[in-house]
Write a structure and sequence with these properties.
Protein name: Immunoglobulin V-set domain-containing protein
Organism: Oncorhynchus tshawytscha
Domain Immunoglobulin V-set: 21-101
Structural class: mainly beta
Number of helices: 0
Pfam families: V-set (PF07686)
Keywords: Immunity, Signal
Largest sheet: 4 strands, antiparallel
Length: 118
């Protein structure tokens, strides 16, 4: 089995109108993976933007997507996560959505200790 066969997203294509609800599902088959991430790629900005992720059962939505998107699921035991749009509201919501699965990394970001003087 190839790496791409281990992560599945459904539906593979969807067409919705303004104010419609959208639900996407992502699943994986890798026993050591415990994190599922959701990304958006819009026609206006082709860079991948992280919407949010589920680490084990703990969901996180990035600040720029809060209030418009929700993530949920169990990335470890059930190996599934969901991306919900309560309603399509912005032109940028018309986009390509990707999910990815990985092992969660534990790290601490140290607080800013000093600033570079300019």
């Amino acid at each position: 089995m190839s790496q791409t066969d281990k992560v599945h997203q459904t539906p593979t294509a969807i067409l919705k109108g303004p104010e419609d609800k959208v639900n996407l599902t992502c699943s994986h088959t890798v026993s050591s993976y415990n994190m599922i991430l959701w990304y958006q790629q819009s026609a206006q900005n082709t860079a991948l933007k992280l919407i949010g992720y589920v680490r084990f059962t703990s969901p996180t939505v990035e600040d720029s997507f809060k209030g418009r998107f929700d993530v949920s699921g169990d990335a470890a035991a059930n190996k599934m996560a969901y991306l919900h749009f309560p309603k399509v509201t912005e032109a940028e919501d018309s986009a390509v959505y990707f999910c990815a699965a990985s092992e969660a990394q534990c790290f601490t970001i140290p607080s800013l200790l000093y600033k570079n003087p300019l």
